[in-house]
Amino acid sequence: MHDKDTITLVLVCDNHLVVMLGVLLKSIERNHIGKEFINIYIVNDGINKINIDKVNRSISSHKIRLIWKTLKQAIPMGVSLPLDRTSFPVCAYARICAPYFLPKHIKKAIYLDVDMLVLEDINQLWNINIGNYTIAAVLDRSEKVSSPWGGIKNYMELGMNPDSKYFNSGLLIINLEKWRSENATELVIKAVNDNSGYVTFADQYGLNIVFINNWFELNSKWNSYSQNDIEDPYLIHFTGMKPIFKGYNYNEKYKDIFYNYIKLTPWSDFKPQSDYMRFVKKFWNVLIKKMRLLS
């Protein structure tokens, strides 16, 4: 099997959103009609054995292989992930380590957040030519670094043009060789650590600083946010409140699509959970970071 016949995906998940991981995988499988094989590297931050088994059983295609990595295995030796003040889990930063835990002969990878559904053949995204750029992404809902919601809070201090575009890091096409040659992982971590008081969306903040005005912009249909209503999206991204919680109040059509896919997984009898669980998880993420900062 040649590399050109294999698509490489990277996902990161904890036990909190594991049901969404299963649904994402099923959506990738159901919509992949191309001949390519797909290697999916999953960074596991505490998913229990029962749920790992369910994730594995979510896939039946011989063209898809799941490769599990622990969070410890994903982080290069000598690298310490940032401890920001957001409620995002520490594992959110694992995506920026992908160029180091993936085999060195792989030249390109696609990173996906697990709160997504892929509704087009993933090979359509894989085959996009991003030229000489290190990464490709979709414009965020904030759109500009100067956005009062999201964006780069201290863009003026960093000398950024307020009209510079701001991307969402939930979907990235990564040129692994260029990333490594630019030491992008270290640069993102430094950007976050140097500006920790301004960090909003974890590594997304650092990525937008490092790649300001230097990223390939993808069609917005490849990252269609659940707060919007884009017709015939290629990929749905459930930013904010997830459809696995009762409090979800965004695009209902997108939610219906999600639950159609969940019926095809080992979580077929899943019912939306109380929003309380979501807030407990956010509180726990913040507490863990504080404890590590004090230790």
Question: Could you describe the 3D structure shown?
Answer:
The protein is an alpha/beta fold and 295 residues long. It is built from ten helices and ten strands. The protein has one domain: Spore Coat Polysaccharide Biosynthesis Protein SpsA, Chain A (Alpha-Beta Complex), CATH 3.90.550. 31% of the residues lie in helices and 21% in strands. The strands form two sheets. It has a seven-stranded mixed beta sheet with strand order 3-2-1-4-7-6-8, with helices on both faces. Helix 2 links the parallel strand 2 and strand 3. Helix 1 packs parallel to helix 2.
Keywords, please?
10 strands; single chain; globular; alpha/beta; Spore Coat Polysaccharide Biosynthesis Protein SpsA, Chain A
Could you give the topology of this structure?
Elements: E1 6-14, H1 18-31, E2 37-45, H2 49-57, E3 64-70, H3 71-74, H4 98-101, E4 108-112, E5 116-118, H5 122-126, E6 135-144, E7 165-175, H6 176-181, H7 184-194, H8 203-210, E8 216-217, E9 224-225, E10 235-237, H9 252-262, H10 275-294
Parallel strand pairs: 1-2, 1-4, 2-3, 6-8, 9-10
Antiparallel strand pairs: 4-7, 5-10, 6-7
**CA-atom Rg in angstroms:** 18 Å
Count of helical regions? 10
Helix/sheet category: alpha/beta
**Structural domain tally:** 1
C-alpha geometry: globular
Instruction: Give the low-confidence spans.
Output: none
Order of helices and strands: EHEHEHHEEHEEHHHEEEHH
Helix fraction? 25-40%
Per CATH, which architecture? Answer: Alpha-Beta Complex
Q: Can you count the beta strands?
A: 10
CATH superfamily, called what? Spore Coat Polysaccharide Biosynthesis Protein SpsA, Chain A
Kindly report the CATH topology.
Answer: Spore Coat Polysaccharide Biosynthesis Protein SpsA, Chain A
Mean pLDDT: 92
- Biggest beta sheet summary: 7 strands, mixed
For the largest sheet, list the strands in their spatial order: 3-2-1-4-7-6-8
- Report the end-to-end length measured between terminal Cα atoms: 47 Å
Strand fraction? 15-25%
| Assigned CATH class | Alpha Beta
